[in-house]
Amino acid sequence: MLAGIWMAILYVIAGVFCFILIITIPFGVAAFRIARFALWPFGRTVVKRPGAGVPSGIGNVLWLVLFGWWLALGHLITGIFLCITIIGIPLGLANFKLIPISLLPLGREIVSVEEAHALGLAPDSRAF
Length: 128
Hints:
Layout: H1 3-20, H2 25-39, E1 44-48, H3 54-82, H4 89-103, E2 108-112, H5 113-118
Helix pairs in contact: 1-2, 1-3, 3-4
């Protein structure tokens, strides 16, 4: 079980790799943020960051090519295996909901559900 730990480890590996390359440090920061979210997603949601524009879009394309596709594949495989058992279905569905943020993490923030409502930001429909 413990799928969040394995996915968080994959995000940390991606983040460390990004920090080693220096120019991709912003991607590393995003990877560490998502690793924390993969470990404990409860009570938090993903919202679009106001003001994120073209640089986030370009960054997302780079992220998708370098790291996003294999992290999303990890969530997909983990979600499928978790959905085999009745007990694992909620966790499997949670893994499926993490696929969009693993593909395109830039321009999004992970905030508490209360904070999202207080700021008037609508939670991303694909998030928790």
